[in-house]
Design goal:
- The protein has 1076 residues and is mainly beta.
- Among the domains are: 53-135; 1015-1069.
- Helices cover 13% and strands 35% of the residues.
- The strands form 16 sheets. The chain has a five-stranded antiparallel beta sheet, with no helix packed on it. It has a five-stranded antiparallel beta sheet with strand order 7-8-9-10-62.
- A hairpin with an 8-residue loop joins strand 21 and strand 22 (270-272).
- Belongs to the WD repeat L(2)GL family.
- This is Syntaxin-binding protein 5-like.
- Residues 689-699 have a biased composition (Basic and acidic residues).
- It holds the Pfam family LLGL.
Length: 1076
Amino acid sequence: MKKFNIRKVLDGLKEVSSSTPSVQVGPQENHLIQETLQSEHFQICKTVRHGFPYQPSSMAFDPVQKILAIGTQSGALRLFGRPGVECYCQHESGAAVIQLQFLINEGALVSALADDSVHLWNLRQKRPAILHSLKFNRERITFCYLPFQSKWLYIGTERGNIHIVNVESFMLSGYVIMWNKAIELSSKAHPGPVVHISDNPMDEGKLIIGFESGIVVLWDLKSKKADYRYTYDEAIHSVAWHHEGKQFICSHSDGTLTIWNIRGQGKPIQTITPHGKQLKDGKKPEPCKPILKVEYKTTRNGDPFIILSGGLSYDTVGRRPCLTVMYGKSTAVLEMDYPIVDFLTLCETPYPNDFQEPYAVVVLLEKDLVVIDLAQNGYPVFENPYPLTIHESPVTCCEYFADCPVDLIPALYSVGSRQKRQGYSKKEWPISGGNWGQGTQSYSEIIITGHADGTVKFWDASAIMLQVLYKLKTAKVFDRNRSKEDKGSAEVLDEDPFAIQIMTWCPESRMLCVAGVSANVIIYRFSKLEVITEVVQLLEVRMQYELNDIESPDGVGGAGEQTSALPTPGASPQTSGPPSHPSTSSNNSDGGTVPCLKVRSTSLKQSPGYQVDLVVQLVWVSGEPPQQITSLALNSSYGMHVKTVVLNLGTVELYGSNDPYQRQPRSPRKTRQPSGAKMSRKLSLPTELKPDLDHRDNSFSRSRSSSVTSIDKESRESISSFHFCETFARKGDSTLTPCLFVGTSLGTVLALALALPPAGEQRQLQPVIISPTGLLVRLKGAIMRMAILDSAGSLLPPAYEPWYEPNITADGEEREKVRKRRPVSVSPSSSQDLNESQYAVVCSEKQAKVISLPSQTCIYKHSITETSFILQANVVQMSQGMCVACFCANGHIMTLSLPGLRPLMDVNYLPLTDMRIARTFCFTNLGQAMYLCSPTEIQRITYSQETCENLQEMLGELFTPVETPEAPNRGFFKGLFGGGAQSLDREELFGELVAGRASRSLAQHIPGLGGIEGMKGAASGVVGDLARARIALDERGQKLGELEERTAAMMASADTFSKHAHEMMLKCKDKKWYQF
């Protein structure tokens, strides 16, 4: 008869009760702790977006404000001013931005989208907003043109027609240029879409229209007819004017450029094939690839610049994309790393009818932004000050740290400044508009990104800016040239064998530990001195776990089934415990025991910065590859690091006699995947940029063991998290002991007591004794995060060792004295009264619990989610207190108070759309968080009400009042004889009185929320009140100004009336009555 277990029933009832929001399940041991965090302290908002705009599609530049705008295929707008002044906006439709046009020096921008809508953006506020929108219903937009200092926008369509929009009211004019009026009446073929519109620099009444088929028309706006037509037998891609308005140049699909006189419509005066091979017999050169864009810029003291993209010969297979600069008799071909999306020539003057004097070219590539200096020989590039290299290699993991030690950023910057490349232009960065924000953020922030090529980048993220500080190349440790024998060991690796998988960093000690996809761990120490390492310290770990002569469940080679505590670097590998523990060796006596990567055997020159201290590698055993590392922890005070996979304790030893699962011993080779499934061993990069993978299904598929439905899921338990602490190791202890908490994928938290030898020589020679003390607590789902609070509810960080210079030049004895003077632990727990209790905070995929120590009783628990699961969780310090912050797979961001686990915030912020967000989402202190929103961009958010209120002041200003340069002088003779630029009263031509109204069915006008209304809606809190007061003052001042003008007009009118009355009186005073 089966025994009835009442304990399991009670456990089931307890789990059911966990569905309540927050339950107190133990004695009120923490009733004295006053929780200071309240719901009003939390608010979610996006702060700033960094990185290169993902999939860019268009670009524009304001030459007076010196602001650059970039549009993307997903409808995003990125605006760049001086370094540190950036802004991100998003069109609601998400349609691709096909063209951008600045209202030069007006603080406004026009965007045309692929869904045939046109939008007017107000840039005079810190968060730009749409003022007006116009949605075309019957025609597709192909080209837009806004003349300088004009309020009339020309819009060309796929049907070949041109419509005109008033940018102030965003209403269509009744003036329309129809395609059949523009071309020859005898022509029966449609000329194709409009690909270019621009007015003559010297005559605003003449408009040049380029049609795709090769027809160019010079249209007279006043007479409403075509003056000249120019026909070429190749399709047109772009048109550009000479500043004198007598010539223009066209680029064509066969790689040719044609230059035309406006009065000579027969043939072009010159045809150029920049990259075509000139044939000897004088025949036409061989056709080349299309020239997608050409610009024609003149100089006052020299030849004009002709700058073009494309046009390469078809036989240049594999050649990189090029930008060609033709100046006089010289032709420079500048190779680019990525395909060219667009380019713009920056000129000294905004006036099209003056000498342009180009000084730089901005080239927008698919994955980079390049600015070329035209004024220096060799055309060097400017050093890009924007943080656009996040995606230089795909990001595989990242960490975020707020409130770092104050000396950390200067130290990283000092070593990183030596890594800068040479050969850049000596001039200042030409995109220099806007002003920095006025925020006074007092704490420093650092973001660390790990990449697929093995690099680790440190970024200064303070005050909502981002600047690269230091770049570490971990691949330098390994030998890149593998022999044929070694290639077999790496056959299951991805094409990125050096990819970073996990990072852990101690800001106080500056120690860094990285785990790679090739089952390797590298420990780095920070040094300001250069050193040459003759032999890299290497520890090869051969995993072979045996239990009673039968291999353990899943072979303990399974990811995360074991942990390893290594002695301090430099000590020989040690093992402890019963004989059943695995052996850790550095020999390869067993056949096939080779690492996935070979550590270099030659000397390694290590520059100031992070220098290799120890390399740990897992080797192949009996033809089986090592499993990947799933968790990592580092403690500088104990001189230890832990990772799942390198193990001398299996889960059976961790549980001891309290193992809740009945694990059946079996051979691992029976449960391993067949050799045909080797692809599952590869690292799945969250930011893969390959074109064939861009459109793959990004849906998030759970692979956590809590969702495994197989019968033997208990035997697949893996370690999911670690936490070093000084706490009460066992129930009822009265002394604090260094401990390691181990969280597993099945929701178990196990405690390991660490017996550390005394500091100094004994610490180097004696092993660390690790004693499992049993199960601490169990939760639903995999353990995500653990932390320790003191009796007052304050966070107790793990003990750490202050940073010291490892490459000290003194002799060995003096160096040892320096080491002994340093405190082993500066944890606050060391000063804690031994009679006081502690609280362990544990958060899993489903639940959070607070455990009182040393009694080990659960005093609070909260069921965070039943239908979803937690992706990221952290115990964070806010300015008002501590809380648990969670990001759920259903897109919710939640915070819970500590230690009471009261729900403080629950916002449906962002639905999880791909693995990238799950892998890269990070919470940190003071209400900051971040994630990779695209393969090239970091999105930072805040969940702090205080930061949200101060955000308006912290943001930079894009628009600054600047005087528009004076128009070019026409000269005496040009003015006398009618030369120079001819102006046009467009209001008279296109206004409603003359042109009438356009058909209402042609386009729909949509008012936006920009301007004062948009600012009122965007502003909030104290800053909002100030902004509203400022707006009210502006409105009041404007009304007072209008009143003053009306009063002055009335006074002038009264004065005129008085004069007339006085004159009439003088005229009539001597006349008799009969003379009237």
